Each structure stands twice: as C-alpha cells, then as structure tokens.
Write a sequence for this structure.
C-alpha cells in the first residue's frame, strides 16, 4: 500500500470517532439523536479528504500517519469544545479550516524550505518581535496576569504560538552551521565542558528571550517550552550533555531568581506547591482540575456528563475548561483510559516527527524536524503536566485540542513543515 | 545526530509516562481521598443532579419527591415534602447542604439508585440520566394524621403503631413536629429549639420512664419462666419496705392475696414488686433482652437515631446488666433507672399480640424502579420469640381486664375487645421545666384482642394527667382508624 493510501485508511476511524463523539454529546444534550451529528461528521470528513487529496498531489511521499493523528486530535478537540459550548465549537471549526488553508499555503510556498535558512536572522527577529508584541501599548492584552495576546482591530491572536516556530527555524539553521565549531571549540574548565563563547552569543539571546518571557510577558509555560526546545536542539546538534546541564542550570538559576523576586512567578510556584492553602483563590483552578480528574475514575463519566459550571449558575467549577484545563475535562468524561489515549496520540505524533528527523538527509532538515517535534511534544507536556500538578499550571494550550485559533493555525503550519521535510526525506530514501 | 534524536525521544517517552502516572494517581488511586476533601464541592453538586426517588405512603400518597430546578447542565433537584410536617418523623429530610436524616438517610442507596463502575458505563452507552428508585412505606396516612393530631392536642410525646404479624410500622408520630421543607432555611433555628426539640424523633430517641406499662414485661417473665401461673396468688399489701424505702400502691390500697388478672387490672405495685423479686434480676434481664431491650430496635432507621431501652446509669453513661446492683423490685414496676423508647414499648405490645413472636419493625414496604418494576419487597422477619404462645394468651386475658374493668377504660373501642396497659410515671420536675405535676403518661396495647391487627404505644410527656386520661384515648383513636381502614 502506498503512503497516501495508508493515510486515507487511517482517516476512516477519525471520521467515525468524530461522528460518534458528536452523537454522544447530542444524546446527552437533547435527550435524542439528531442527524446534525452526522452532518458535522460528514463535513469534517470532507475537509480531511480534501486535505488528503492535496497531500496526494503535492507531497506524495510524506509521512502517512501524521495527518490522520492530527485529525484525530482535532476531531477530539472539536467534540470536547462542542460539548462545552456549541458557539465555541463553530469558531474552532472555522479555525480548523483556516489552519488547513495556511497548511496548504505553507506547503505551496515552502516546497523548497531551505530558503528559510537564508532568512534566519529575519525570522529570529520576527519571532522575538512577536514575543514582545503583547507588551506593546495599544495592541497588547493582559489575561490572568500574563501578557499573552495581541489585538489588531478585529484580529486577536497569541503570538507565542507563531513565535515558537520562528525560533525553532532560527535555532535549527544556526546550529546546522555552527555545530562543528561548538563541538570542536569547546574547552574544559574545572572538568566542565564549556562551549566557545564566541559562538554562544545567539544562544544567549534565546536564553534572554526565555527569561524575558518569564518576567515581562509573564508567560511561564511558553518560557519553559521555548527553553526546553532550545536545550533539546543543542543536545541533538552537539551531542554534549554538558551543554544541556549548563543550560538547565542557567534556566533554573534565572527561574529561581525571578521566582523569589517577581510576585507573579512566585505566586504560581507557591500555588503549585501548596494549593490547599489557596483553595478559594489562586489555588482554585488547579484543585478543581484535580477534583475533576478524581471524578473521572477509570472510565470517566461519559461525553457531556461532567460538571463544568456550578449547577444553577454560570460560575466556573472547572475554570478555563475549553483551554488550559481541557485535559482535566477529558479525564473527567473519558476517564484514565481516554486520557491515556490522548497522551498516546501525542506520543505517536512525536514518534513520527522524530522518525522524519532520523530519515532526513541534511543537517538543517534533521534539526528542524527535531526542533518542531520537540517543541510540540513539550507544549503538550507543559500543559498536561500543569493540569496534573507535575509542574506549575500555566496558560499554554493543548495542541489541536484546546479552543483557540492561534494554537490551531500555528500548529498546522508546524505540521506542514514536518510533512515537507518528510516528503523530501522519504522521496530521497525511495530513489537510491 | 541520530543517536541523540533517539535519546531525546526516550526522554519524551519518559516525560509522557510521568503524565500518565500522575493522571492515574489523581483519577484512580487518590480519587477517593480527593472526593472527601472539604474544598471539593463536586460530590455535592453531583448528588444534586440525581433525581432522587420518591417516598410514598402505603396508599401511594407522595411523602417526598425531588423537583427539578434549572435545565441543561444547570439542572438540579431539590427535595420537596408535599405533606409538610406530617411525616417529618420518621421520614426525615435530605438536602445537599444540610445533609440527611432518618428514613431518607437509611434508604439513601435505594433512593439514589445504586452505582457501580460497570453500571455507569452502561449509563453512558444508554445516554440516560441517573434516576433513583421509589421507596413505598407501610405508613398509613389516616393513622399517621390521627396520631400526630391527637399528640398535638395532648402534649409532647410519641405514638408508634405496628402490625404485629409483620412488623409493618403503620404510624410513627412525634410531637413537636417540624416541616422538612423548612430545613434549608431554619435548620440551625430548629436545632437550637431546646424546649420543643422538633428534630428529635421522640418515638425512637425519647428515653422515658415506662411506669406501669413495664408490668407487662414483668408478668411475661413471671409466666413464661414458670415462676407463676395465672392462678398463682401473691399477697399485696398497701405498702412494702424495699431496699430501705417504702414502695406503695396508689392510696396505699391493700389488695390481699390476688392473682395476675386482678394485679394487672388494678396495676398493683406491691404485687409486681414481689413478682420481680421472685423472678430475680437474672431472669428479668433475660426477658428484657428477648423483647429487644439493651439492643437497638431492628428498624430501618439510622443507628444513631434509634436509642436502646434498659436500666440506664446516667453517671456511668451505660446500660446496666444482670451483674450490676439494681433494685429489681422497682425495675419490675417500671421505676428505678429504667428508660424506654416508645418504639420499644410498641414492640412489647406487638410481641404479645403476635402469639409471643416479635417481628422486626419495618417502615419500608417495597422498592420500585423508575420503570415500575418492583426491585425489592420487605419480607416480614422474626426478631425473637420472647414468650410462648401460651404465655401470650394468658397475658392477653389479663391485659383485656385492664381496658374492660381496670385502669385503662378509655382505650375501649365499642364492639372490639382491646388488650392494654396504662402507665403513669413521675418525672423529675426539672425535666418538665419545673412543673410540679409532671407525669409521663403511657398506654400500650393492641386490638382486637382476639385477632390483633394493630399494636400501639402512645406516650405524653410532662402532663398533669394519667395514662388513662391522656394516652389511652390516643391509642383508641389510632386503633379505630386502623381498624376502620381494614
């Protein structure tokens, strides 16, 4: 079977799952089945098939499993968001279509993605500017004490989602060129291998950007995600664990310093460690998130059965259920098994992403695929880890599932890049 | 670089494994503890979303039902009691914030509908909402109404009416009553009301001196143990010296040598005191145990809301047994430190009425699923056989004399033979707010005496009147109502 036929087969269960999910939510909400659920399923399937046809023409050799896996997450996200609020689901569906349009455009215009290397400093500057944007007067927006959003007229978006792609592209390109010097030029000081300072400048810029985010944008989650991706790339590029250790030490030092001096950061950590002491205030969200999970058990309560608001009121029982804590809602409704399935899908996507990196021939492709996959997987870890109290809870979205246009669109661009790399790598592998 | 990529993937796998580990911990391993956290209001809200089953009287009258408020995800149910204060006892109440009590609490599992992990999966597949079962009681609305109304005109007290052959509780009333619909608004006020104690079910929690009604137990022990026969005579003087203090008949009336019938008919203290001494502490306690004293009555109400009867030492806060120093002559006439619940005395009457067999008293009759299917039916079950059928018959004859010619004539029902026993115990005036004429008035009995349909205990606290004046009429009204409804 060819790659594209495998992709087509894999899309069938996605459509079935989406239809079944909508049907379940309908049954719960309207006490009867409605053919609207079938219509939604059909639309979704049609869009997926159109995308599949496009991939058939443009990227016939690309990895066949990534798109179905992402569709599965999107379908899952649509059902969850639909279950929370039908209007939100309509927005989400529109963004899904917009995301696929950008996906197609990326594939169309970046067929020769090496061009990115040429503009790497421009891309890095755009990435940093995007991060800065939420603090700019007039367009910046503050949400829950963090500066995450930008509003340009009717268009509101979260620049960090796009910024992460820019930074990864820059790092991949920069490290491709400098990895040799970084390895060769390293010196041992007091038994620790130190990278050559001359080539470290741009790296320090990235570190600075992360700290900047931590303090000025107050976006702990993105900061963590960026820096982890950065360390992952350094490690893959140089093979030097010591660089990672130094980087981690620098980050922890910075994080510790700011945690003890910046109240916002300090609060997040305090709530993470002692949520019960802030049960009615800042600890409410994480505690309710955990209580919602406790309510799910092994099998969950079923689609549409969990409590999101306090009955009889509009007050949130599970705050930010459609974005930050959507994973807790999944555990609540689908239980441990459903949640494991979601984690498994992310893991499979990561596996396919790293597989692409392994197959890729040139350094840039390898590093780019690694970086994009790592940043994606780490984003999933940061938010699921936040909701399950592994790390402090932050406002990062759960890729392809959480409600939010920026997240969906940016991650489809990320997917497009991965498929572009994959198509080239597999084409070269097939034609020896 | 490939080696590093594989290692990086290994790290991601490890990180995701941590996520699965934490999720398992919260959702499964620590779930029970989390559900019990004070900060977790979720279980309360979820309870509210269950349509709790109805509680019905024997004739189908709705005693409690859950009414929907709001809709969609905001839908919740609130308990409503259409009959107001009539069934406040023994049905109790059930509210999310205030908790639950009595019958509502005891039958919670049936009313909520049992839940199992498998059951909830099936629910999900069916898409149905959870709904509890209805519980039908044995309570007879007419009898319950008469019992409560009579009490309200007589004074604080309680009435318990039991069908002797089955143990079905047909009426259980406690005055002062309360309206369960008011619980969400005035629970603390009701709790603070120490003169009326409306939330206190006097039928199962009232600990009263039984007075002469206890002579039925003493007589049962004497006859059944073979200490006496119905023909045995004991000389009954006007006064006896017992444990260094005089023990008198009313007006110190002397009866001379008399048998059980006369002694019970005129409630002769000196006769029963001597019988008690003859029976002995050991045997008397044994018969008390057989009638259910010193144990919680096996009724379908929460354990902590049903008290034991027996010789209670307030200093030691415990029930005394046969080894303890007890004035058995005064126990035999219902004095000493003997305290009983109205439910216990109704059980005594019911056991005598049912040929010596004591059935477990039960308020519930059957559990009906939402689709009308009867899930469970109460099967009458025997608690004990305290006395033989022969003893019961002899005792019945003596108790008939009480109503036809003795101290309990106000319990008589025209053309129906009634067996019973009055009681009037003096209560310390401080328990009655300093009133000097403070009696605990009692009547226990059953009717018809030859073919008992109903056994009743009625008691009124802190009354200047005697058992025959104030308690016997309540017995008569309730018994008449039950018999009229047959």
């Amino acid at each position: 079977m060819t790659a594209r036929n495998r992709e087509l087969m894999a899309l069938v269960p996605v459509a079935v799952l989406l239809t079944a999910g909508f049907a379940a939510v309908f049954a719960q909400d309207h006490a009867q089945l409605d053919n609207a659920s079938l219509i939604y399923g059909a639309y979704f399937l049609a869009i997926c098939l159109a995308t599949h046809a496009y991939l058939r023409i443009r990227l016939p050799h690309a990895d066949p499993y990534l798109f179905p896996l992402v569709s599965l997450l999107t379908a899952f996200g649509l059902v969850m968001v639909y279950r929370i609020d039908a209007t939100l689901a309509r927005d989400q569906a529109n963004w899904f279509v917009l995301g696929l349009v950008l996906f197609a455009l990326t594939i169309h215009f970046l067929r020769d993605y090496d061009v990115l290397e040429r503009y790497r400093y421009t891309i890095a500057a755009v990435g940093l500017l995007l991060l800065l944007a939420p603090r700019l007067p007039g367009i910046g927006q503050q949400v829950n004490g963090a500066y995450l959003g930008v509003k340009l007229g009717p268009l509101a978006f979260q620049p960090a989602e796009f910024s992460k792609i820019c930074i990864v592209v820059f790092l991949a390109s920069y490290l491709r060129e400098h990895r040799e010097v970084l390895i060769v030029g390293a010196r041992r000081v007091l038994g620790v291998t130190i990278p050559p300072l001359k080539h470290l400048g741009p790296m320090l810029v990235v570190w600075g950007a992360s700290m900047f985010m931590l303090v000025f944008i107050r976006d702990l989650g993105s900061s963590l995600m960026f820096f982890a991706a950065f360390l992952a790339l350094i490690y893959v590029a140089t093979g030097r664990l010591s660089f990672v250790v130094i980087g981690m030490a620098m980050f922890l030092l910075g994080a510790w310093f700011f945690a003890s001096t910046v109240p916002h950061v300090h609060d997040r950590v305090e709530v993470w460690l002692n949520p019960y002491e802030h049960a009615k205030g800042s600890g409410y969200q994480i505690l309710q998130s955990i209580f919602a999970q406790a309510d799910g058990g092994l099998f969950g309560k079923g689609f549409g059965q969990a409590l999101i608001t306090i009955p009889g009121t509009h007050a949130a029982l599970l705050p930010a259920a459609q974005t930050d804590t959507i994973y807790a809602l999944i555990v609540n409704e689908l239980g441990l098994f459903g949640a494991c399935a979601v984690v498994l899908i992310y893991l499979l996507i990561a596996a396919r992403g790293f597989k692409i990196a392994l197959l890729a021939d040139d350094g840039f492709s390898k590093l780019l695929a690694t970086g994009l996959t790592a940043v994606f997987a780490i984003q999933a870890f940061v938010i699921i880890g936040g909701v399950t109290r592994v790390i402090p809870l932050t406002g990062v979205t759960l890729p392809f599932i959480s409600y939010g246009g920026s997240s969906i669109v940016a991650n489809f661009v990320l997917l497009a890049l991965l498929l572009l790399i994959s198509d080239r790598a597999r084409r070269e592998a097939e034609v020896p | 670089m490939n080696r590093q990529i594989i290692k990086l993937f290994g790290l991601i796998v490890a990180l995701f494994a941590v996520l699965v580990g934490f999720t398992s911990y919260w959702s499964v391993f620590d779930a029970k503890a989390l559900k019990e956290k004070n900060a977790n209001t979720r279980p309360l809200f979820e309870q509210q979303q269950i349509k709790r089953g109805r509680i019905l009287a024997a004739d189908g009258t709705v005693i409690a039902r859950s009414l929907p408020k709001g809709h969609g995800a905001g839908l919740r149910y609130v308990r409503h009691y259409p009959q107001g204060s009539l069934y406040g006892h023994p049905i109790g109440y059930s509210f999310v914030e205030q908790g639950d009590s009595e019958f509502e609490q005891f039958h919670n599992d049936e009313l909520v509908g049992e839940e199992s992990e498998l059951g909830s999966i099936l629910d999900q597949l069916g898409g149905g909402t959870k709904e509890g079962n209805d519980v039908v009681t044995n309570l007879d609305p007419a009898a319950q109404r008469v019992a409560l109304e009579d009490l309200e005109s007589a004074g604080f007290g309680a009435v318990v009416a039991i069908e002797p052959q089955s143990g079905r509780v047909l009426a259980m009333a406690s005055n002062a009553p309360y309206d369960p619909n008011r619980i969400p608004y005035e629970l603390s006020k009701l709790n603070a009301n120490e003169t009326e104690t409306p939330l206190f079910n006097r039928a199962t929690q009232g600990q009263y001196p039984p007075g002469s009604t206890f002579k039925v137990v003493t007589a049962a022990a004497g006859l059944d143990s073979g200490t006496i026969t119905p023909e045995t005579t004991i000389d009954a003087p006007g006064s006896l010296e017992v444990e260094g203090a005089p023990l008198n008949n009313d007006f110190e009336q002397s009866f001379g040598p008399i048998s059980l019938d006369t002694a019970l008919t005129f409630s002769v203290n000196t006769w029963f005191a001597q019988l008690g001494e003859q029976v002995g502490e050991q045997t008397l306690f044994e018969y008390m145990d057989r009638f259910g004293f010193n144990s919680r009555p096996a009724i379908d109400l929460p354990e902590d809301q049903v008290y034991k009867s027996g010789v209670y030492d307030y200093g030691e806060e415990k029930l005394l047994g046969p080894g303890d120093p007890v004035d058995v002559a005064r126990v035999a006439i219902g004095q000493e430190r003997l305290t009983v619940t109205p439910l216990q005395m109704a059980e005594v009457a019911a056991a005598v009425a049912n040929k010596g067999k004591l059935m477990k008293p039960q308020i519930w009759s059957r559990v009906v699923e939402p689709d009308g299917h009867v899930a469970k039916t109460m099967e009458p079950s025997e608690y004990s056989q305290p006395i033989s059928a022969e003893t019961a018959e002899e005792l019945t004859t003596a108790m008939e004399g009480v109503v036809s010619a003795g101290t309990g004539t106000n319990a008589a029902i025209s053309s129906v033979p009634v067996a019973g026993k009055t009681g009037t115990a003096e209560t310390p005036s401080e328990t009655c707010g300093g009133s000097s004429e403070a009696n605990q008035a009692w009547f226990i009995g059953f009717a018809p005496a030859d073919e008992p349909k109903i056994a009743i205990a009625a008691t009124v606290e802190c009354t200047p009147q005697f058992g025959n004046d104030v308690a016997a009429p309540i017995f008569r009204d309730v018994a008449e109502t039950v018999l009229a409804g047959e």
Notes: The longest strand of chain A covers residues 146-152. The CA atoms of residues 386 and 393 of chain A lie 4 Å apart.
